[in-house]
Amino acid sequence: MKTKLLFFIFLMSFCAFSQELPPIVKYTSSTYGAGNQNWMIAQDQNRYVFFANNDGLLEFNGSNWELYPSPNETIIRSVKVIGNKIYTGCYMEFGFWTRQTDGKLKYTSLSNRIKNKILDDEQFWNVLNYDQWVIFQSLDRIYIYDTKTGTFKVIAPNYKITKSFRTKNGIYFQTIHGGLFEIESGKGRLVSNNPILQSNRIVNVFSIEEGLLIQTQLNGFYKLIGPTLTKFSTEVDSELATSSVYSSQLLSDGSFALGTVSNGIFILTNEGNIKYHITQNKGLSNNTVLSLFEDADQNLWVGLDNGINCINLQSPIQNFVDDTGILGTVYTSKLYKGNLYIGTNQGLFYKDHQTNGQFKFINGTKGQVWSLFEYDGTLFCGHDSGTFVIENAVAKNVFSASGTWKFETVPNQKELVLQGNYYGISVLKKINNQWIFKNKIVGFNYSSRYFEITAALEVYVSHEYKGVFRLQLDNTLLKTKPFTTYSSPKKGKNASLTKFNHTIYYANKEGIFKLNNTTKRFAKDELLSAVFEKEEYTSGKLIVDNSNKIWLFSKNYIHYFSSSKLSNQLKQNVIPIPASLTNSMLGFENITQISNSNYLIGTTDGYYVLNINDLSFKNHNISFAAITTNKLNESFVNRAIKEEGRFSYDENNISFNYTVPEFNKYINAEFQYLLEGFQEDWSEWNAKPTVSFKNLPPGYYTFKVKAKFANSALENSIEYSFTVKKPWYFTNIALFVYLILVLVMAQFIHKAYKNYYQKQKEKLIEENNLLLEIKELENEQEVMRIRNEQLSQDVDTKSRELAVSTMSLNSKNELLAFIKEDLKKTPDDGNRSIKSVISTINKNISEGDSWSVFKEAFDNADKDFLKKMKLAHPSLTPNDLRLCAYLRLNLSSKEVAPLLNISVRSVEIKRYRLRKKMELSHEQGLVEYILSV
Question: What digits encode the pLDDT tens for the residues 444-484?
């Protein structure tokens, strides 16, 4: 009994997750950078959305959030866009915001004009407008501001005001215990004091043809026609009674959105039938809905007690989100006999496709379901535990030897089906209308997640870690011949293989390859491979649908190709839904055609249904959100957006923020930009709504941006021109001054160089003259040297002459002495004439005469020598000086002896004595010393 109760609770909890809902975009307080609670929502003509937030006025332009703190740092309770002004109300303060030239908002207070009339502790919970009047409502009074005259009127009811409302034809408000009032001529007029309206809090009032439709907090809707109040019943009255409606909104299609305190959002048709019930368990961030607002694109904005949500009510995509994990990651799906089957990592589930009924679990299928395959009226389930046949929501196991990946039919053998298993390929056979396991194909044992078979019984298998194999099966499908492993194309992560238009394709990160049936080789298909260019590859998963379209998945897009009706070329279609938003498991992407235009795409937390024929969107406009500049290491400065910019040379770091105010969950706007004057080509398309340029050189620039949404280019593009001024030292005036300075400097340099070269010339002339003088001196010195040499030669000549003369005199004396001696040998009684001759000889060989002649000649040849010797050696006698003179003439002792009329031995003695007198050392030669004087 306990098990049955738990199973019932499981089913009831899962029932809450069975409705396919519009996509919900979630914004947490950390995302938008403000307080948790959001009390009111509005939108301006630029489609920017504004929120009355606990921390101030919150603005969202589709790309960036900006918070403007309230003027007195209190909670902003109300916001309303009227024309080009955003009116807000908070604690004891109300006024409006206007946009400045730099794109930022500036606040102007209105309450300061009537500060003395505002009650203490008064908060303004609502802002409404009607014609030229703006109404600010607190819990005590209503302030009516005339925008034309700038005057105020104040309505002060007897009781507290619960809320104020605007319909097509009037402004209403409710007071506690007072009923419903309408403002007429600046005063409150009672419309109805029906006890029901007195005792029930009114959440909203809507105009209908008959009168008014009134939404209450706990008791649903009432119609007020004249004085009569009648109940307007809906399918959710009982749920509303326990949920406490806090906010409501009439949508453009006539339906009603009701926000509750504890039960999320109810969306009802105008007849009161439930269309959606969206709670926290179905994707809403929080069950307490404080405010609702429908924007220009019919998105429903939800201000929650903890965050902000945007519900894309008009999206061509419907979500099924499983936040509990009961359903799990969806690997495969199939529409079979009116039931939608979903294979997940938790097992196989199904539900009636035509209803919003709950998914039901098929017993015995717990575990991963890899594939669902319909053939010959039978639904096959490839499972981690083997193969199941599904009939009437009952699973029958027909193969359990290993897990089964996928199934393929066998050409020309209708009763056979091939299945790819964890350990090879096996065959199923239909016997007596029952499918049974026939055999495993012998000779191939690798995992066969992706395989295809040709009419010639060739099987191509893709293995993520081994690459591509080609098997040739025998006619009995019992075994394969030795298989071929392809070296090209290579193996790859998340690679896959499929058959499209009777041709086998293989995909990996290097591209998509097409098999040539003749050569049995793969060649790259350039058209399909272009999908993975520019680092777009995430998975090579290839899927062919029932309409013969081949689907591919990349980082930022979903692609599908179909055969062209007018040519053999494939026609490409691109859906700009990035993998990061679809939440798909890479390598296990799956898409199933469930109708002509609807496709179911599995995700890690459920699935979404895409209508490819409804992928058209309203045209959007791109605009600048902010333009900022900054100096190096300084903060950013906002610049005027609609004026041409002129920035100083050091403010050359510029950032552009631009946006397309669209709020679709799955489809993002993409941008392309060009900075003329700096770039030559447009950038690649990307979803980043901002770009920065650093250190721009001085010059004139034009920044251009264009956008596309849902793969369609937007009608408008924007541009901004600006100039980065030259530094003062590069301005025209500075350049002119530089030119003058250069000319002056050139003149100065020219003159300096002229003077320099003149000086150099003079210096050169002076140097040349000096060189000439030196040359002349050298020549004079040379002449003197030659003269000295000549004089030296003359001295030598005279010395030789003196020596010759001395030798001649010596020879003469020797001859006369010899003759004298011969004459003396004659007898004494010799002739008188002989005596006379001897006497004459004696006179001619006089030493005194000879020395006098020699001394005179020697002084002429070598002046002052004898004086120098006498001065150096005063003790020298005349005979010593005479010997020195002979030695000066370099005469030998033998030659000196006759001149002194002494023997050679006597000359040697004289020379020895002379050395003693001169005190010469033993090593010093006498002649060398005399010659050196």
Answer: 999 999 999 999 999 999 998 999 999 999 999 999 999 99
Q: Which of 796, 822, 806 is nearest to 897 (CA)?
A: 806
Q: Tell me which H or E stretch contains 789.
A: helix 732-824
E-strand stretches of 791-899: none
| 227-236, 599-608, 843-852, range with the lowest pLDDT | 843-852
Does the reported pTM lie above 0.85? no
Helix (H, G, I), strand (E, B) or coil at 520: coil
Confidence of residue 38 (pLDDT cuts 50, 70, 90): very high
Q: What is the pLDDT of residues 278-305, one digit of tens each?
A: 998 888 999 999 999 999 999 999 999 9
Pull the structure tokens for residue 915: 């050395």
> pLDDT band for position 10 (50/70/90)?
very low
Judged by average pLDDT, the poorest of 341-345, 517-521, 918-922 is 918-922
620, 669 Cβ separation under 8 angstroms: yes
If one counts every other C-beta atom within 10 angstroms of the C-beta of residue 459, the result is: 23
List % helix, strand, coil for the chain (3-state, nearest 5): 25, 40, 35
Task: Determine the Cα–Cα distance for residues 541 and 577; give it in Å rounded to an integer.
Answer: 16
pLDDT beyond 70 at 2: no
Bridge partners, 419 (sequence order): 407, 426
CA quadruple 257, 258, 264, 268: dihedral positive or negative? negative
Q: Are 249 and 293 in contact (CB under 8 A)?
A: yes
Buried b (16+ CB within 10 A) or exposed e, 539-573: bbbbbbeeeebbbbbbebbbbbbeeeeeeeebeee
* pLDDT at 898 (0 to 100): 76
Question: Could you tell me how far CA 66 lies from the centroid of its own chain?
Answer: 24
Q: Dig out the tokens for 31 from the structure.
A: 């995302």
Cβ(551)–Cβ(568) below 8 Å: no
Q: Across the chain, what does the average pLDDT equal?
A: 88
Compute the distance between CA of residue 680 and CA of residue 877 in angstroms, rounded to an integer.
117
Mention every residue, 6+ apart, whose C-beta is less than 8 A from residue 134: 80, 82, 87, 127, 128, 144, 145, 147
Backbone φ/ψ region at 97: left (φ over 0), alpha (ψ -120 to 50), beta: beta
d(C-alpha 538, C-alpha 523), whole Å: 21
Are the C-beta atoms of 677 and 709 separated by less than 8 Å?
no
**C-beta contacts of 548-552 below 8 A and 24+ residues apart:** 548/500, 548/501, 550/498, 550/500, 550/505, 551/591, 552/507, 552/512, 552/528
Residue 454 burial by Cβ neighbours in a 10 Å radius (0-12, 13-18, 19+):
middle
Q: How far apart, in whole angstroms, are the C-alpha atoms of residue 481 and residue 479? A: 7
Residue 586 CA, distance from chain mean position: 25
Q: How far is CA 481 from CA 407, 462, 473, 814, in A?
A: 21, 18, 7, 147
Tell which residue, 864, 883, 866, 882, has the closest CA to residue 874. Answer: 866
**Rounded Cα gap, residues 99 and 514, in angstroms:** 57
Q: What are phi and psi of 230, to 5 degrees?
A: -125, 155
Six token digits for residue 903:
């023997």
Euclidean distance between CA atoms 504 and 486, whole angstroms: 14
Q: CB atoms < 10 A from the CB of 830, how many?
A: 12
CA pair distance 58, 35, nearest whole angstrom: 9
pLDDT, one tens digit per residue, over 807-818 is 566 566 666 667
Q: Which residues pair with 427 in a beta bridge?
A: 418, 439
* Pairwise CA distance, residues 94 & 733, whole Å: 53
Average pLDDT over residues 766-782: 85
**Helix or strand (DSSP H, E) at 8:** helix 2-15
ω into 489 cis (within 30 of 0): yes
